[in-house]
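Moderator note: this is an archived Q&A kept for reference. The question asked for a predicted structure of one protein chain; the sequence and the answer are reproduced below.
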Amino acid sequence: MVQGLFGGGTSYEGQSISDIKEDVNNWKIYTENVKSQIVEKKEALIKNGFWNKIPWNFQQLLMNQSSV
C-alpha cells in the first residue's frame, strides 16, 4: 500500500477495509519500533552523562517517552 508521510495523509480511496487495517497495523508496529529506539538512545545518553549537555528545550520533547 502507498502511504503518506503523515498519518491521515494517505488516500484510501479504492482500498478495501482489510487493506486499511493492514496499513494501520503496520504504522502501529513502526511507531512502536521508533519509540523503542528513542527510549533506548535516551537511556544511553543519561547513563553516559551526555543528556545534561543537550539543550533543555530538546530534552522536553523526549522527557516522557519512557512512560508513554
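Archived answer notes: The CA atoms of residues 18 and 53 lie 47 Å apart.
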